[in-house]
Amino acid sequence: MAEPLTILVAARDEGSRIGQTVEALRAAFPAAEIVVADDGSRDATAPAARERGARVVRLPRLGKGQALTLGEREAPPGRLLLVDADLEGDLAPLLETDADLVVAVFSEREGGGFGLAKRAARGLIRARSGFRAREPLSGQRALSSAAREVCFPLAPGFGCEVRMTIDAVRAGLSVREHELSLRHRATGRDARGFLHRGRQLLDAALACGPTALNHRGLRLPLVGAVVALGGARASARVRLGVAGVAALGLTDDLWSGPERGFRAHFRAGGTTGVLKAVGIPALALVSTRSLRGASLVSLSANALNQLDTKPGRALKAFLLAALPMRGPARAYAPIAVLLAPYDLREMTMLGDAGSNALGAVLGYCSVATFTPRGQRLAIAALAAFTVLGEARSLGDLIERTPGLSRLDRLGRR
Q1: Distance from the CA of 109 to the CA of which of 20, 225, 329, 391 falls in 20 to 30 A?
Q2: What is the value of pTM for the model shown?
Q3: What is the mean pLDDT of residues 70-91?
């Protein structure tokens, strides 16, 4: 018997079209379950889809890849057919092709720009997997159970299709493209169209870099290493120290195991966490030439990393702590402000690279701002904070404290 089929549709503000799409899919695939992932629509998308018999998953406005990821969790096991909400045409041939991932190629081009986003997406797929994609951005895709296991959770935004192809090829699955007579609402060569394609290009580029899972299992690009590019007005020693801390954090992002906390890392032995625990104090000692300064920098780096468990939390802590301080904080504040909306909206993640680096900046600020007595007090407070984080969940404490909880949720989706 054939595996069960679920049709998954990501939709945002498609109230005028989603009903027709669901009806057409219901007629073409009567045995399939249709799941519409409503990505924060502000119109009648959800009720229109539900009236036509689709199962609707209501979500905050996150992005296409995130909506498909959360919608997929509500689907039963089996094959998946991914469909754009504005599609017209017969997708049945995708399910008749013997491949793990089958991508629909439009037989006739409709609208579009100058092909820059598509050519860039092709280049990214070929560079990361060797696969020569004809239609790298097509959202009409059939996935076997094996492809579903490999590809989900998807990369965020409009980068989900590009990374999906890369992941399937690199996992050794069969990937095919199938030309079909399909139609959809094409974007034109106007401001809205160019903005859409620019977003596609950015999302595709981010999706091909390092990614990690956030607190609710969404797969997001790790962008915290860009903190190392900030600090133009900081001293050379601080810039090199922050860049080194970011590099150590990125190593932990890419190759860390399941261990959490100092005790777990040292118990396990040669982990990337142990590398950070040794490397960050060593870098801080070289750059500050002081045991007290090295303690401040390394403890601050760890403290901000301990807070980076929910979107925007570590960035808010950095910006608030930087306000009364002298030193390099103002040099790094612009990049923190730039990253904040993407982090809060769950489009990117700081990761250890970003949170450790920004924490180190606060440590260097403490060296420049506090008197020797103030530095000793700060070291004692940060050490107590570290011990508390080892023993209890700091996130739970924040969420149970009324004032901190409101500040923590501010700006988060």
Answers
A1: 20
A2: 0.85
A3: 92
